[in-house]
Design a protein that fits this description.
Elements: H1 2-9, H2 13-30, H3 33-43, H4 48-76, H5 78-98, H6 102-131, H7 135-160, H8 165-186, H9 201-209, H10 212-228, H11 234-243, H12 247-272, H13 277-290, H14 293-298, H15 309-346, H16 351-382, H17 388-409, H18 412-419
Helix pairs in contact: 2-6, 2-7, 2-8, 4-5, 4-6, 4-16, 5-6, 5-8, 6-7, 6-16, 7-12, 7-15, 10-15, 10-16, 10-17, 11-15, 12-15, 13-15, 13-17, 15-18, 16-17
Length: 434
């Protein structure tokens, strides 16, 4: 942690404010969202399909609006979009604690998702612009604060649940309100390069969509998000099967978060000194795929029973815990370089738009990947081949690594730097950049 704090102090005040911003956003979000489904189905006695609809609206409104949020950040500045997103979270979380009708809950959920679509691309674009040549280091520290919020938030929410879920919502809303006031007063205004767009927003989108190198990189990385999401889908399912309870699931999240908080900065420095960005991403993806081999090798083993005590419980949890550690390490390796690569591909222009489209593609990939993963889990059980989903996920990681390796051989980053430069004065921006 000493090294992490030293790294934080080495950045200027805007970067430090953005780190506090992300920590607080995640604390507020994760103190509420893990318990929302239980509140809707329990306290409000809503049907399962209704709960799914409310949660789905939040995800859809966020993923569907990322591109617009990123483009607006490029046009009107990063700070206004950050403040707008925080303001919408105040309203959305406040409504979740005060209303009970389905239309009102749907509106609150939509506002909560839209808020994320507004501030997420803006925060990342602002961080990249402010960090300059230290983008990789900045995103490494950013991930530490991001994961810290995921660790702290559920604990605060659990404590507040002792009073009522309404208190969870209202405290989260107040937290976002305080953050809004802080950022409004202290965060400097910031635009990216070319802050006076020479074309329409639709032309910007066509330009980004025509950027072949960026699209190929985005498509190659989609699988990594499917693999990452198994911390919320496949791994908890396996832990419940193997151990028969939820304690192991909590252990997975605790280990993943603690590992990132304690080791991200040191691991990034080690990798940065030895590998190129392309090598780092490729090797990280290979580790990400290999993370599921322990589960493939032990698939179908008998679940733990009370008669085996803690020894049996630990043995049953070990494969999933090993997979979680490897998956977390892989994410720690890849994430800072992945975020910096997007800026390189953008040529430091329209960075918010690039992040917005990247997030949209990743979100669509996660949705499709979850369906396929669920189908693979069902097929593995029905066909009596329990290793099937884990083998498929391992192959997904290997395929992503192979795709990035192929792009690297074609020099996609160097090519992107050439084609993404702004046009000379007096000439219009070309519609095709890659």
């Amino acid at each position: 942690m000493t090294r992490t704090l030293a790294q934080v102090r080495s950045f200027n005040r805007p970067v430090q404010l953005l780190l506090i911003n992300q920590l607080t956003i995640n604390v507020g979000f994760y103190m509420l969202m893990p318990y929302l489904a239980g509140y809707l189905s329990g306290d409000l006695a809503m049907a399962a399909w209704t709960v799914g609809l409310i949660l789905g609206v939040r995800n859809l409104s966020q993923q569907g609006m990322f591109l617009i949020g990123g483009s607006l950040a490029d046009r009107i500045g990063y700070k206004p979009m950050i403040l707008a997103g925080l303001g919408l979270r105040v309203v959305g979380f406040g409504l979740l604690g005060l209303v009970e009708s389905l239309p009102a809950l749907l509106a609150a959920s939509a506002l909560t998702g839209l808020a994320g679509a507004l501030f997420n691309p803006a925060v990342r674009a602002y961080l990249a612009a402010e960090a300059g040549e230290r983008k990789v280091d900045a995103f490494a520290v950013f991930n530490v604060f991001y994961q810290s919020g995921i660790l702290i938030g559920p604990l605060i929410g659990l404590a507040l649940l002792g009073f009522a879920f309404r208190w969870v919502c209202l405290v989260a809303a107040v937290l976002f309100l305080l953050l809004l006031i802080l950022q409004a007063r202290a965060l400097p205004a910031r635009h990216g390069a070319g802050d006076k767009p020479a074309q329409s927003m639709l032309a910007d989108w066509r330009q980004v969509l025509a950027h072949r190198s960026f699209l190929l990189f985005s498509l190659a990385m989609i699988g990594s998000y499917v693999l990452n999401f198994q911390v919320y889908l496949g791994l908890p399912i396996e832990v419940r099967r193997a151990t028969g309870g939820e304690t192991g699931v909590a252990a997975l999240f605790a280990v993943s978060g603690a590992l990132t908080v304690l080791g991200q900065v040191r691991l990034t420095a080690w990798v940065k000194a030895r590998w190129t960005p392309e090598q780092t991403i490729t090797r990280g993806l290979l580790v990400m795929g290999a993370a599921f081999l322990p589960l493939a090798l032990t698939a179908g083993t008998a679940p733990a029973t009370t008669g085996h005590g803690w020894t049996g419980y630990a043995a049953a949890l070990a494969p999933a815990l090993t997979s979680t550690v490897l998956l977390t390490l892989a994410t720690m390796i890849v994430y800072p370089f992945e975020m910096a690569t997007i800026v390189t591909l953008a040529g430091d222009r329209m960075v918010g738009t690039y992040y917005g489209l990247y997030n949209t593609l990743s979100g669509l990939g996660i949705a499709a990947g979850n369906l396929l993963t669920g189908a693979a889990l069902d097929a593995g059980r029905n066909l009596h081949v329990p290793a099937l989903p884990w083998i498929a996920l391992t192959l997904t990681g290997a395929s992503c690594a192979a795709a990035i390796r192929l792009l690297s051989r074609k020099g996609f980053q160097h090519r992107a730097e050439q084609v993404a430069k702004p046009p000379p004065p007096g000439r219009s921006t070309p519609a095709r950049t890659g």
